[in-house]
Fold these 3 entries.
Entry 1:
Amino acid sequence: MTGFFISEDLLQSENAARRSVLDEDFAALSRALARRGIDSETLTRSVMAFGVAIPTWGVGTGGTRFARFPGPGEPRHLFDKLEDCATIHRLSRATPTLSPHFPWDTTSDYAALRDVAAGYGLAFDAVNSNTFQDQPNQAHSYKFGSLSHVDGAVRAQAIAHNIDCITIGRQLGSEALTVWIADGSNFAGQSNLTQAFDRYLESMAEIYAALPGDWRVFLEHKLYEPAFYSTVVSDWGTSLAAAQELGPKAQCLVDLGHHAPNVNIEQIVARLIRFGKLGGFHFNDSKYGDDDLDAGSIEPFRLFLVFNELIDAELRGAKNFAPAYMLDQSHNVTDPIESLLQSAIELQRAYAQALIVDRAGLAVAQAANDALGAHLELKRAFTTDVSPILAMARLRAGGAIAPIETYRASNYRKHKTSERPPVAGTSAGIV
Ligand code: AOS
Ligand code: ZN
Ligand code: ZN
Ligand code: ZN
C-alpha cells in the first residue's frame, strides 16, 4: 500500500486488549456447544474458510435517486478501491475476493491490477457487465434496452461489451460473468413480452458461446426497476428457464432484494439448488424492494434460513453446487468500509448458525410431522450467539477480534481524507 495502512502493531494491541475476554467467552460457548455434540474447533475452522466477495462499487458512498452524499476520503479510482478492500479483508479475514464492474473499473493494464490485488492477498470473483447506462462516446443508447433491444445494432454492442468483460475477467483470473440487464418496459403495450425474451435469449446465447471452458455465467433476475411495468428477466422462473435453455455453464444469481415483498427466498434457493442452477448471490437486505441495505440488518432470520438451505445442500452433496458469494449493497449513511465489515460478519454468523443446526434432530421432527419441534431445532441454532466463534476465527486468521472498533481506532478514513483529495462529480453508481 502506498499510503496509510493499518499497522500490525495497532492490530496486535487492539487484539491484546480483547483477548482474555474472548478466551473466556469462547471457552464458555465451546462447553455449551459440546453439550449439543458440536465441536467448536471444527466450527471455527469452517468459519475461517468462509469468504464473500466485495463489490468494487460498494466501497464508495452509494446514493438514492434523490441524492448522494459523498463521504470524506472516498476512493478516487480502482487502486484506491483496492486499498479499501484490502483493509476490509485485513480486519475481517472474510473478504478475500473482489467483484469488479465494467466499464466502471476500466484500467489500462489488467495484469498489473491483478498483481496489485494479489499483493494484498486479494483475487477476483465474478466480473459484472454494465449495459444499463450509456457511456461517453457510445455508438448506441441503452435507453430502450440492451440485450433485448428491438435494434440488432444495440444488441450487438451489448453482446460485445459482455464479451469484453469476459476477456478482462480472464486476465484478472475471474471465472464467471454476472449479467444483470435493466431491460423492460414502462407501459403496457410498449414491448412484446415474448419477443423481448426471445431477443434476450439469442443475445445471451452469443455471450454463452464466448465463455471459456471453465467459466460460468450468472443470470441476475430483478422484479422491477428501472422498468416499472415489465422487466425482461423479472424473476427466478424466467432466470431458471433461460439458464436451462442456455446450457450447463449458465446459472441463476439471487440478489436478495430483487423479489416481491414477503416472497420465500429460501425456497427459491432450494428450488434452484434442486436443478443444479444456483450460481451465486448478491447479498444485501431489504425492507421494501431493491433497498440494498446491509446484509443481516433487517431480516437476519431470513438470511439464516437461506444459509440453512445452503448447508443442507452442501451436506447432501447436491450436484453443481458451488455458489459464489458476493455482496451488493448501497452505503448511503455509513462509512462503506464499516458496513462491508459488518455485512461480512453477518454472513459468517448466518453460516455458522446454519452449521450448528441439529440436522438429525430436524429430520426426526420433520418425519414425525412435529411442526413446532422442527421449528425449534432451527430456532435453537438461530438464537445461539456464535460471536465468540466468529471473533476467534478472525483472530486465528490474522484479523481483528473487533474489526469496526479497530478500524475506528486506526483513523484510517482520516488518513485517507488527506491522501485522497475529492474528485468532482465522482459517482459510485447506483446498485
Ligand atoms: C441491480 O439492481 C443489480 O443488483 C446489479 O447487480 C447491478 O449490476 C449492481 O448492483 C451494480 O449496480
Ligand atoms: Zn445485484
Ligand atoms: Zn441492489
Ligand atoms: Zn439490485
Entry 2:
Amino acid sequence: MSEVKTYPVSTNASQRAWIDESKYFEMYEKSIKNPDAFWGEQGKQLDWIKPYTKVKNASFEPDNVSIKWFEDGTLNASYNCLDRHLAERGDQTAIIWEGDDPGEDKKITYRELHEMVCRLAGGLKSLGAKKGDRITIYMPMIPEAAAAMLACARIGAIHSVVFGGFSPDSLANRIQDCDSNILITADEGLRGGRKVPLKKNADAAMANCPSIKHCVVVKRTGGDIGWQSGRDVWHHELCAQASPDTPAAEMSAEDPLFILYTSGSTGKPKGVLHTTGGYLLFSAMTHKYVFDYHDGDIYWCTADVGWVTGHSYIVYGPLANGAVTLMFEGVPNYPDASRFWQVCDKHKVNIFYTAPTAIRALMREGEEPVKSTDRSSLRLLGSVGEPINPEAWKWYHEVVGDERCPIVDTWWQTETGGILITPLPGATPLKPGSATRPFFGVQPQIVDADGKPLEGACEGNLCMTTSWPGQMRTVFGDHERFVQTYFSTYPGRYFTGDGCRRDEDGYYWITGRVDDVINVSGHRMGTAEVESSLVAHPKVSEAAVVGYPHDIKGQGIYAYVTLLVGEEPTEELRKELVQWVRKDIGPIASPDLIQWAPGLPKTRSGKIMRRILRKIAENDASNLGDTSTLADPSVVADLVENRMNQG
Ligand code: WT7
C-alpha cells in the first residue's frame, strides 16, 4: 500500500484542548482497566436526582444479552439540558436557528428554550400524555423540533422522531410499530425554497393509525392544510394555555429516552431503543471531547434531527453541555453553493460537523464558492456517516479549513448512541480516511469470518467486546431481534455490520458495510426494503437490490428487476418504478439505476447470489468468482452485457 501522509497534532489544537496525547492514553487505559471507576467518575458530569451506586452491568452472552448503566440512579434529561444551566447561563444562546431563507434566523436563550419546553410538556400532559407513552415527531428543522424532543423527555414520554423526508407509509409503519398516541408535526416544511407537505403526509399516515389520538401542529409556513377537529391541535394554542414551569419527571437511568428507526439487512426498520442516563452522559462527553467544546464556542452540526446525529450532536450532547448549537433548516446548495460557509461567517461558527456526501457535492462546484467566504472563525471540522475518501478529506482540510483546522472523522452508528472511533483534536495525529482510535471505554475487535480475533495490523469484521454507556439497549418490542442481529454472528460480542482494517499504528479504517445494508449519502438503506417495495408493483415479478460506487452519494442504489411475463421493459416503466419506490419509502430510497433482468443468478436452492450482482453493479465483471453453483449460469452473461452505465 502507498505511504499515507500523517498530519501531526497542531500546537494550537493541543494547547487549548481538554485532552492531549498523553492524557488520552492515560484516560483510555483507565477506562479499560477499571470501567466502573472511570464511568462512575464521568457520570458526575450529569445532575442526578438520586445518585447511582452501581455503574456498569452488561452481558453480551447470547442467552442473556442485558445492558444497564447507572441502573439505580434517577435523573431527567430535559432538566440536564435546560434547568441546570439557568442560573449560570439562562441568558446565553442555546440554539441559533438559521432558516432556509438566508434572511431568516433567530437566537433562543436557555431560558427561552426552557419555557418553550415546559409549555409543550404541559400541553402534552393536558392531552393525556404520560410516562412511557410513545410520541412521534415528524418535523422540519425548526427549534420546535428540539423542544418537542425535550418536552417528551421532561414528562418521561418516549419520542420517536421520523425524518421529514419519509413517506406517509414509512411514517405510518413507524407509528404502528411503537403504538404512538400523539404525533407532533408542522403544517409544511421549507427546504431549498420548496415546501414539504408534512401535515398532508401526516394525515395520510394517520388514516392508517387509529392509535393516534392527537396531532399537534406547528404553524411554520401558514399554508393550507386539512384539519380534523378534536384530533388536531395548534401547537401555539396548546402552549399558550400551558404552564411555563412544568416540572421534570424523575426517571430511572434505564428508563427509555427515545426510539429511532433504522434499516437493517432484513425486514422492516428496527426501533433502536436508547435509555436516559448512559445515553445522555455518552452524548455529552463525546461532544465535549471530540469537538473539544469550550464555553463561548459556536458549534454547528448540519445533520437533521430525524437521524441519530441530530439527536446526539444537535440536541442532547450540546445542550447537556450548555453549548451554543446551530440548527439549519435548509440545504447546502440553496440559494447557492456558498451557503454553508456564509452561515459560518454570519454566525462565527468555530466547530463544523458534516457528512462526506455534502463535501463531495460541494467539491464538484469548485473552490470559488468557498474561497469567496472568510471562514476564519472555523477551528475544527468533523465528518460522519460514511468513510471519507482521501480526496474529499484533503479538499475539506485545504480548501474549507485553509489547512488550519483538524478534521475529526467520527465513526459510529444509530445503535452506538454516540461516537466510538475518532480522533481527538488535541491528541491524535490524523491520517486522511481513517477514523483513527477508539474513544474512552471502547474496545474494538477485528475478527475473521469464523469470529477469530485478529491481532496487530489486520482486516476483517468490526466488533466491540464490551459495553459503553451510549449503547442501544434493545429493539423496541423485540428483544430477540436485538440479540439475533447484533450478538449471534460472533457470540459474546457486539457486531457492528462494518468491515474494518487496523494498521500498524493501531489506527482503524472502516471499509464499509459487510451486510445487505447500503449507505446512500450517509443514510442507511436496507436492500430488502427497496426490494419489497419494487415487488409490490403490479408489473414486477422479482427484484434484487445492491449498492454500487457513486461519486456523490458514496453508494448508489442499483436494482435488478424481473418483470411479469408479458410486461414490456420500457423507459417509461423504469421511471415509474423509481417514482413508485420514492413515493412508497421516501426520496432517499429511489433507485439510481434499474437494470431489466430476464433472470437473476440463483443457487439451485433458489438463493439469489448477491455477490455476483454486486460485482456486476460495481463494473467488476472480470472478477465474478465461482459461478459453478448457479442453477442457470447463462443469466450472468446477459446481466454483464446489459449493465447500466452510471449516467
Ligand atoms: C453506519 C451507521 C452515525 C451517524 C450517521 C450514520 C457508516 C458512519 C462513519 C465514518 C466510515 C461510517 C458505517 C456505520 N459510518 N460514520 N466516520 N467512517 N463509516 O448512522 O445510519 O446508523 O449508519 O454508517 O457503515 O455502520 P447510521
Entry 3:
Amino acid sequence: MSAESPYRRVLLKLSGEGLMGTAGYGIDPERIREVAEDVALLVEGGHEVCLVIGGGNIFRGVKGAAEGMDRTSADYMGMLATVMNALAVQSALEAQGLHTRVQSAIPMDAVCEPYIRRRAIRHLEKGRVVIFAAGTGNPFFTTDTAAALRAVEMNCDALLKATQVDGVYAADPKTNPDAERFERLSYTEVLARDLKVMDAAAIALARENRIPILVFALGSTGGARAVVEGRGRFTLVS
Ligand code: UDP
C-alpha cells in the first residue's frame, strides 16, 4: 500500500445508473469491466475493498410506488435488483482474477452468502472483495444508507462515493457550467445546504461515526486508487 494513503479499508458505493453505460437501462458489460479494472487496481495497491451497489438501473421503489404498486413490495424489488447487479459485478471482478464474495441482506442461500458481519470482516482480511447486496434489507431505505451502514460495520477508513462528476458542486455542473466545486466540506454543511452527495441518513451516519466520504467520478482506469491515495480529483466530506 502507498505509504501516504490513510485509507486502508474502503467501501465503494456505486449507483446502479453507473453500471448502465450509455444505454438507458440495465447492465453494460463494458462499463462493468471498467469498474472491475478500477477495483482490481485498488486491491493491487494493498487496500481492502468492499462494495455496495445500487439498483436504479433496473428498478426503483419510489417509481414503482408512483405507478400504483405497494411501496414495500416495490422496495423489495429494488433490493432484488441490487442482487442482480452484485452478481454481474462479482463475475467481472473474478474475470480480473480477484477473489470475491457476495453477501445479501436478504438471505438467498442458493445465490450468495447471507450478510454476516464477522464473516465479511474475515473475507476482507483475507484480501477478498466483498459485495454487499440487497441494501439494508429494509424497505424505505436506500443503498446510500446501506453503504454508510456497512462502512461503519466494517470499520472502513473511508467511504468512496462514485458519481458522474469529479466531486460535489453547488449545482449540477452539466446544466450549470459555472457551478461552484467544493474541495472540502463538512457533513453539517452538506446537510444544511442540501447538497446532493448522498441522502441525509447516510451523511448523518457517516458524521456520527467519523467516516470521511470521498466523492469522485469513477470512469478512468485507476481513478479510485488515485483518489484513495490522495492523488486524484475528489471532494472530501469530513
Ligand atoms: N432499497 C430499499 N432498501 C435499501 C436499499 C434499497 O428498499 O436498504 C430499494 C429502493 O426501492 C431503491 C432500490 O432498492 O429505490 C434501489 O436502490 P437505490 O435507489 O439506492 O439505487 P441507486 O440509486 O444507488 O442505483
